[in-house]
Design goal:
homodimer, 234 residues, 9 strands, 37% helix, globular
């Protein structure tokens, strides 16, 4: 099968990091960017790191949306709403959009360890208002350290991905993508509205990283085995 | 030394669970309650579970405040502000108050997997407005499962405690208390304002517990060893 993953804003650290890991797992990845030349540069860098077999290409964001129905949004919050309005005509009916954005106060010149209040409750819920009817939004990957993703590709990623969506199929899709990355476990976090808490956790982790000089992630403990989806136990 | 820990609202599940674990660790614990007879009942139950050596007594809440300068607040959010106003004259100058409360929407008839917005930012920051001048507030223990604390006392507690305060001495004191409980690690989470995120995490964990039938906790990964205080590495 020829599913591809289009990463909107894929030239930033979070998008590039996920692209590296998915390309290494054998997925076909499209890097989307405002600037197709930058997207192609990033795709080339990924090929160099992952190997010649890596299935990676670069495109302008709306071409990337038109080329895939599995989209991952990794843009800074300050550009999120305007970009989604612009991309709306290009997003295919039935698309799944995985939103990894976080409303950090850094978006308006504040601290990355604080968040902004979003009227809808979370960046992901804002996204849900802006995608075309029939597209599904799922929130995931906000807490995974971009530094770790972009680091040594032989190093596992010591983090759980809590996945929130109102569409169970979209949750399932995001969980499957999460566990393509070794040692990541995916947990169904329930409805999209819960993304507001997951987004806050990113600000907490950034604060801990600054304070303790680390690359923080989270693990959820104490749930039954069936709650954790992982590479080894699917 | 004869330090005692007074647990305000100590007859509820969170307070009793912490009391059990600290009594077992050899700490002197005072159970506070509106009703001194209930406090004494809980103290007796703890002695029965922990053993005759357990140093536990029960008192009315304001007597408990007067008897100790290390207070732990484990009351439901709906009663928190009124209780603090009532206790204010009894809280000793120089006291440290560890706030473990969470503004769950259940406080106003909503869901325990959602939170209320608190004007000050968090339940702990509200508390900081209500204690006498010279008392220090530190937020901690919100994410530790009461069910696990009250369970088999031979079972470790698989959870990190993120400690937030504007007073480094108060942070230190809460971290020391946290690591009295086997396998809990304490992490300095920075300023008290960060408690708002830690409090949200409790609502997330409650939602995961309902969805997956577990007793969820959290671990922070990816920080350097020095960031984690534990029984084995202090």
């Amino acid at each position: 099968m020829s599913r591809s993953i289009a990463i909107i804003g894929g030239t930033g650290p979070a998008g590039t990091g996920l692209a590296l890991r998915w390309a290494r797992a054998g997925e076909t990845v499209i890097i989307g960017s405002r600037d197709s030349a930058r997207a192609e540069q990033t795709a080339e860098m990924i090929r160099q790191r992952v190997g010649a077999n890596a299935q990676v290409s670069g495109m302008e964001n709306s071409a990337a949306c038109a080329a895939s129905d599995l989209l991952v949004l990794t843009v800074p919050f300050e550009g999120q709403a305007a970009l989604l309005k612009q991309l709306k005509p290009a997003i295919r009916a039935g698309s799944t959009l995985i939103d990894a954005t976080v409303p950090l106060a850094a978006s308006v010149g504040g601290r990355a360890s604080r968040t902004l209040g979003v009227w809808q409750g979370s960046a992901a819920q804002q996204t849900a208002e802006l995608v075309p009817k029939g597209a599904s939004v799922v929130a995931a990957f906000q807490n995974v350290s971009a530094d770790v993703l972009n680091g040594n590709l032989d190093d596992d990623v010591d983090c759980d991905v809590i996945v929130c969506s109102d569409d169970p199929n979209a949750t399932q899709m995001a969980m499957e993508l999460a566990v393509k990355i070794p040692r990541i476990r995916a947990i169904d976090g329930g409805k999209l509205e819960n993304a507001r808490i997951i987004e806050q956790i990113t600000a907490l982790l950034i604060g801990l990283n600054i304070r303790h000089k680390g690359h923080g992630g989270i693990r959820i403990t104490g749930l039954p085995d069936a709650a954790y989806k992982s590479l080894t136990a699917q």
